[in-house]
Amino acid sequence: MRQIPLSMPFNAPPPAVFCPVCGKRVLSTEGAPTPCEHVVYIWHSDAGLVHAAAAAAHRLQQLGERCKAEDAAATLKAEHQFALDISYGGMACGPIWYQVQVGFDFHPEAAA
Ligand SMILES: [Zn+2]
Known about the structure:
This protein is mainly beta. It has 2 helices and 7 strands; from the N terminus they run βββββααββ.
């Protein structure tokens, strides 16, 4: 699995993420994720697995609420897959950090 770690500056808004293949916005600063066919999974530190493509869904859904970022990333085995692993945070009662991970597949037809 290949992961690209990114850290947003403290107090920066949650990241908007666009698919590097088709350009669709798959994650916005507000609202539900809108995954395209190239998104294998979306995992958030607050909510766990929020999206899994059909090819990865069975394995990830077996883990259910126990699904961790590394479990989701382990589904990326092909050379044409990678994950963006983004940390961002701000002030609540104190400093708080979140992690969001989006797995991409540049050739999803191969998984079918
Ligand atoms: Zn796409």
